[in-house]
Amino acid sequence: MGLLDGKVAIVTGAGNGIGREEAMLFAREGAKVVVNDVGGARDGAGASGSAAESVADEIRKSGGEAVANCDSVAEMAGAQRMVDDAVKHFGGLDIVVNNAGILRDKTFVKMDEAMFDAVIAVHLRGTFNVSQCAAKRMIEQKRGGKIVNTTSVSGMFGNFGQANYAAAKAGIYGLTRTLAIELKKHGIQVNALAPIARTRMTDDLPMFQAMPEETYGPHFIAPGALFLASALANELSGEVLAVAGTKMSVYRVVESPGVIRDDPRSPWTAEDIARNWDRIAKL
């Protein structure tokens, strides 16, 4: 018995890296998988069906069920075709893993609109597109579902040279929290992963140079996605599971206890805020 026996899953960006490991693991756990990947370069340029087809073929050769899809998550029509493929080939949809992403790193003052827009389109709009198409189908089916998004430490804390990526990933965090609230009544749990892994996307980034694949490879991330996509996480929604090698942790936005003025009719002045900053900010 697998954790995903009888389930149908879409995994975006599944042609390489983390997405590939997620798709392969889901299939081993009994899921029928729509392997989505546009097949472009790390910066999103180009397209090829070979990446998605290769992973889908590998799953089938291993005894699993899979179909390749090469649509772009950045287009709503493409997202709908992914859902349509799940329904056409496997009869429905239970799980979505929004993993597709690109990088176009540049320091903020040197970043042009095209760099910003392209990253937002794939990460944030792509997550919106696929999640909305999937949620509509899940609601229609009336059997619940799982949506697993992919945020990042860059989105939670910021990172030099990644204003576009960080903005997109922070947006995905907010989107995850909101979907968890709105879709709860339909039995759909929405959570997110914040992975740190050595992949094609990160291979030449300075912080990853000291992280060998044998201890920080994408295969460390996939079990986190499996957990969130399975019945083991039925009580969880709106969480961000961070995975870095063998370390598991949770990201949460916290508010300090704060300070309340004695007179509720008297607004704070800027000088008051400055004098009380340490008390206001203390966690």
Descriptive account of the structure:
- An 8-stranded mixed sheet has the order 3-2-1-4-5-6-7-8, sandwiched between helices.
- β2, α2 (about 50-60) and β3 (about 65-70) form a beta-alpha-beta unit.
- It has helices at about 15-30, 50-60, 75-90, 115-140, 155, 165-180, 215, 220-230, 270-275, 275-280, and strands at about 10, 30-35, 65-70, 95, 145-150, 190-195, 240-245, 245-250.
- The chain folds into 2 domains: about 10-250, NAD(P)-binding Rossmann-like Domain (Rossmann fold, 3-Layer(aba) Sandwich), CATH 3.40.50.720; about 255-283, no CATH class.
- It is α/β, with parallel strands linked by helices and about 280 residues long.
- About 45% of the residues are buried.
- The mean pLDDT is about 95.
Question: Characteristics of this structure?
Answer:
single chain; 283 residues; Rossmann fold; 2 domains; eight-stranded mixed beta sheet; 10 helices; 41% helix; 15% strand
